[in-house]
């Protein structure tokens, strides 16, 4: 059975290749950063908790010292690309669709096949799609053998340190949990709501979900805290609200917060780097006037639907 | 209360635009120390979580494919395709992508698209090409269009996925309520995600069409 370990090995080999190819560039910071990520993917389970912690400290030191730079491996010129695009036509979209199509078909059909760990079927199918797409594209276009790795290195270096930020933030959530941050915030919010006002309690819950999600970067982390502090005692037990409506819309209020915070790095910061935006918060700015009206609408929906 | 110092570090660090990796590491240290953990225990806790969360960074394995296709002219082809479609505007294009993302996410198909897989190679160059025809000709304007393409992907996924009954957030709610003595079926929850999904389509879709109007007036 194929498990996530196989996909990690693939990722580890890719980062190892980035490190080796970077050796000739004179950017030791990038080489070290990629080598550490390769080590994490290939041997993370053997390093032990403290070993992995040391690996993180080294990654942070490299990023904090500004040791990561953009790289410029040899690539094609704009004119070559336009000529290729004109010559190859819309067939060029087909390999780009192999990855999403494999992820889709794998998720739908390989789940109960016994070939793939059913809990991780989408991620493994995604990895499978990458291998298929690379094989098909290389066979069709006869590109230089190292081209995918050099191009991948160009892109990962454009993203830079931001490529591990989502994983770092997920790990910070674990430390917050170990330190009991959630319970403290929940107790604080629970203490400031005025007694007896249903509207104030609804606003405290939807607004609290959005705000605490902005701090944690993740509505999943905010949900148990805010629901235990506000929704369960006040809205559900106190005012007799429908728990399904309250919790469903509460979670979606948290998602409004996700649209507004750099802490949700994989949704907001990583795309800004992937799309070459000068403003690291450019994606968040584009989302403000969707997120704020939706938060107000969620509050109104909860107030109107939960207490019929 | 000292455990909350990490939150202060995060807010201050992002406000001062320090390197976010450094901010996160210092926040973890401050939080752990505030809660009375030993420094080495904090490093170990963080290291274990980092190792457990490797799947978050797995998405980067698509970069060699995307890069190889970009090298061959995929973005240019995406621009040409949109250039050939009469009546294609940036607002309509992104609205169509929003609907696609919401509908597929509601069916649980989240990883079939995303910033690395579809926005950078396909959606963003198409949106830029359409916007250029509508008179966007400066770099700042193009960056705004790219940011809107990424924003549309986020909005589509966030306000579609909870309609699917087996998505992580719905399962989390079910488990949380069950632990507190309230039994609810996933379907009872996911139907209440539909009003917000419609509202998201109207609000964000409306903004996209408004973008077209603004560009026409210029």
From TrEMBL, chain A:
Superkingdom, taxonomy of origin: Bacteria
Stretches that traverse the bilayer: 50-68, 88-110, 122-141, 162-193, 199-232, 244-264, 284-306
Keywords, sorted A to Z: Membrane, Transmembrane, Transmembrane helix
Record InterPro entries: DUF979
Record carries keyword Thylakoid: no
Protein name: DUF979 domain-containing protein
TrEMBL record, chain B:
Transmembrane segments: 25-43, 55-74, 155-177, 189-210
A family per Pfam: DUF969
Keyword terms of this UniProt record: Membrane, Transmembrane, Transmembrane helix
Protein name per the record: DUF969 domain-containing protein
